[in-house]
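S1.2 Input.
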Amino acid sequence: MEQYQIEEIVFQDKYGCLLHAKDLQHERNVSLYRFFPHGKNNGGLNPEESKAFRDAFRFMANITHPVLRKVYDAGVDTLDHLPYVAGEWVDGTNLQDFLEEDGLEPSSAINLLRIYIDASIHVSKKIGHDSIWLDTELSSIIMSSKDTERPITFRLTPTKWFNSNRAQNTSIVLSDFLRKLMHWEDRKISDQEGEGLGAWLCWLRMNSECNLTESLESLNALTRNTNAASPTWSKPKISNSAIVRSVRKESHATRNVLLFGAVPLVIVCVVLFIIQKNKSPQASASASTPNKHTSTSNEIAVSQTTREEMERRAIQYKEELEKSNAVANDKLTEIKSNAEEREGIFLPEDLPYARTLEHGTSFKLRGKVATVSPSSTGKTIYLYFSSPINREELAGAINKADVERHFKNVDLKGFIGKTILIDGVVSKQVLPKDSVVIKVYRPKQITVE
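S1.3 Output.
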């Protein structure tokens, strides 16, 4: 990492550290991300893992598309063996900040979804595997403040959606993405809403095995979009833009982002199937020899040997996933059975089962309150059952507006140290990912036992 001069620390969390850096060799700003492949304080990569990591990201660096931010470099720090990725630095507003108070108007959401799926199809063809390869975290989607030719960009995170069984499914990823864009996380949507987006959401739910092309065709059909050309981005509209712009903080005007998020190395190796030793000399020679029948230099030629290896590893990954699913299903069955013995009451550690339920499902939760704390935005008050807070447990949640309106005479901190029964509903959160809380709206939904 000697070629990088650190300018500032943008943020650091349990997954890694994002740095604003200067690439001294190429004289450019970069987003430099150092991440923990095995979790914080669990060490870096061994030599074999390091080689696989470099091979994988060198492959991904050759994939280009107008809306994708570039990968410049990837490697492993010789001091602590932590992997790093140097990516394109983009100035602009991230979509999460832009949509802080309200969702996109349907027309803007439709346009953004078309751009996203179109780019995902492009990347899938390069890799040879139809799947979600672009990040849907709103904070990673940047509306440029300077580049008029690339007004919106995404980051390429090829293994992100393989981190959980839920996220692997294309229809589920697109459904979650749409709900975030429209601020539909906390409500049930009818087929008539969103100028056809409600109908598309229903279609995704009914076609859980759809591929990217099918999802794009259905989006165009259900939203009555007859334009077959590649979609372009224009300034988006939000449902209550005047209010949002009046309250948006100046600090949100410029965000600098990286290309890759933290991802488990083992999944990198499985998903990308980049095994250098299996590349034949003939394949390497062929790839380096110009041919008038090849497309541009940005195209990637994949040898037959590599494709066979990809197919073999895909089958292996599927078998491992099926075994993992079987174990997970047994655990869910056990959780449900134990809750039935408690007359339908669940415990904080039953989060895995709550994740399988539909948003808005009735849910009873019992636990001893350890701490009462507001969210980072102050819009929600959480009742946690562990101290320090355990993100792998369920928590109770009350909107601040409901606290001010209905809990005026309730001392929420008075619940600390007491066992309570919450009779609420499942609420699936955008951040952190896969987070589920049990939401209540009235004091009568909380009983001290």
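S1.4 Remarks. Residues 158-167, 240-304 have pLDDT under 50 and may be disordered.
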